[in-house]
Specification:
Blueprint (H helix, E strand, L loop, with lengths): L17 E2 L3 H10 L2 E7 L4 H16 L3 E6 L4 H6 L7 E6 L2 E7 L4 H12 L1
Length: 119
């Protein structure tokens, strides 16, 4: 599937999570979008699999961009954010990290957390 715009660019719909391709890509996503929820996950992680449909739903229902970072593919990036367990969720608002949580949070909590920065 070829595309002219990089994944998650402002011209692209953000109705589904964007897979982060590296540190520069993450920095660009955070710079280009007002609110970004980053999910540091692993394919082998059971709680990550449980959280995935919740994040899909949030991406479709909120103005926030949902980004996913595979910690096995991007170990250095995960280390920069102090990720010691998965899933770890990092929320950015206006280019700044504003929250970080490890573990699964309920959909309602995630939605209210995002809405606190999108209003």
């Amino acid at each position: 599937m070829a595309t002219d715009a990089p994944s998650g660019s402002p011209d692209q719909s953000t109705n589904e999570p964007v897979h982060v391709e590296g540190e520069t890509h993450l920095e660009q996503l955070v710079a280009d979008h007002d609110v970004v929820l980053v999910d540091f996950y692993a394919d082998w992680c059971g709680p990550c699999k449980m959280l995935s449909p919740v994040l899909d739903q949030l991406a479709a229902q909120t103005d926030a961009l949902v980004a996913k970072v595979d910690v096995d593919d991007h170990q250095l990036l995960a280390g920069e954010f102090g990720v010691r367990g998965v899933p770890t969720l990092v929320l950015f608002a206006d280019g700044q990290q504003v929250e970080q949580h490890t573990g699964v949070l309920p959909a309602e909590r995630l939605q209210s957390m995002i809405e606190g920065y999108t209003e």
